[in-house]
Amino acid sequence: MKLSEELQARGYIAQCTSDNLSEIFDEEKRVIYHGIDPTADSAHAGNFVIWMLLKHLVNHGHQIVFLIGGGTGMIGDPKPDAERELASREVIVGRVEKIKKQASDFFGQTKVTFVDNHDWLGDLSLITFLRDIGKHFTVGELLKKEAIARRLQSEVGLSYTEFAYPLLQAYDYLELYQKSNVTVQVGGSDQWGNVVAGVDLVRRKTQTTVYGLTVPLIIDKTTGKKFGKSEGNAVWLDATKTAPYAFYQFWLNTSDESVGEYLKLFSLLSLEEISHLAEAVATKPQERLAQKTLAAEVTKLVHGVEASDQVKRVTELLFGNESITALTEVDRQFLLVNAPQQNFAPGTELIKALVAAGLASSKREAKTFVTEGAVTINGTKILEVDSCLDYDAQTILQVKRGKKNIALFLIK
Q1: Quick one: what percent of the chain has pLDDT higher than 90?
Q2: What's the mean per-residue pLDDT of the chain?
Q3: ∠ at Cα 340 (338, 342), nearest 5°?
Q4: Most buried of the four, 91, 194, 203, 343, by CB within 10 Å?
Q5: Which strands form 211-215's sheet, in the order they lie side by side?
Q6: Fold (topology level) of 244-322
Q7: What is the pLDDT of residues 185-208, one digit of tens each?
């Protein structure tokens, strides 16, 4: 299968400036760029789908220029309903370094070159920019761009600062074409207007055809929300912002409706392997083999094999039939650092603890669960409603209400 065919089969292509993907990816090895603005100090799952596309491109011999927008990040792409807060140069520099380290760890020793557009935007003359770049854009065509059009329909309005953003991103493409022979830009589908602006500018300035394409926004089919920090459901690639345990759980909880799509986009498994996993979803959904594979594969790519294996083992202990007492000291420390837990003092009433941990909505309901034998602690069924958490400090308790409702209690 040609690379262009595989990219389409995996679902990476939303829009493209050419109808012939084969001429872009199959006929010659290209220099391809992707840009990310440091609006935070970490990428998230919404960015990660593009990183996975770049991974496939690198594996097939294409060269990647990874642009981190130290310049454009000081301006900000227009949000749909609010003006972006302008961060200081010092904050931007710190974010750039963190994202660069994150991306470097992900791509490893591959054909990836990192650049910061502050290097050419920082000292750009306004007069020169308006004469050489601004004259190639009309106000009419800028107003048609989706991000700008949506913002103008909001009550916030749009400053000239953000209105000029597409010109800056277009200038990035021209700069990278002239200095690094970049001929393809990849971005999210919400960046389509900016991508096209860059393609048009290179053509107008150099009479050369270059290309742009976008990947689809990833939508959780069960909630209808996209992956992204603006939605309040961000899953960060930085382990200090989303711990490996929580990261793994996020992918493990993927719905049956979405898991096949996510395996194609977020893993390097072959399409044949993914097809077999999709069959397992249909024939043995209770085993959740596809979800377990997805969680392990993505965690391995982002946090490494060791972290993936450890969080997988800990998850199987917590949610399987094996008792938490089988945890090794290494597993225990991993849980304490990564897994969400409720802290209780020795002797706390079990009924109060169940309500505080969200395993019951009221003391009355908690008592009912206990008397019906629905509550276990470290595998032992608790039947006395007046039971207390009489355990030594630093003891980890695996508390279950039924089979699926689980909480970790730490006695402190």
Answers
A1: 60
A2: 89
A3: 135
A4: 194
A5: 15-16, 211-215, 182-188, 31-36, 63-68, 112-116
A6: Tyrosyl-Transfer RNA Synthetase (1.10.240)
A7: 999 988 899 999 999 999 999 999
Has residue 231 got a pLDDT over 60? no
Tell me if 56 sits within 8 A of 2, measured CB to CB: no
Contact 197, 163 (CB under 8 A): no
For residue 46, give Cα distances in angstroms to 220, 227, 231, 234.
Answer: 11, 5, 11, 8
Q: Which two tokens stand for residue 49?
A: 């789908």
Residue 321: what pLDDT?
65
Paired with 31 in beta bridges are: 63, 182
Q: Is the dihedral of CA 225, 231, 233, 236 positive or negative?
A: positive
Q: Collapse the DSSP code of 16 into the 3-class scheme (helix H, G, I; strand E, B; otherwise coil) and give the result.
A: strand
Structural domain boundaries in the chain? 3-216, 244-322, 342-411
Task: Write down the pTM of the prediction.
Answer: 0.85
The token pair at 52 is: 């996975």
Q: Which CATH architecture has domain 3-216?
A: 3-Layer(aba) Sandwich (3.40)
Question: Does domain 342-411 fall into CATH 3.50.50.60?
Answer: no
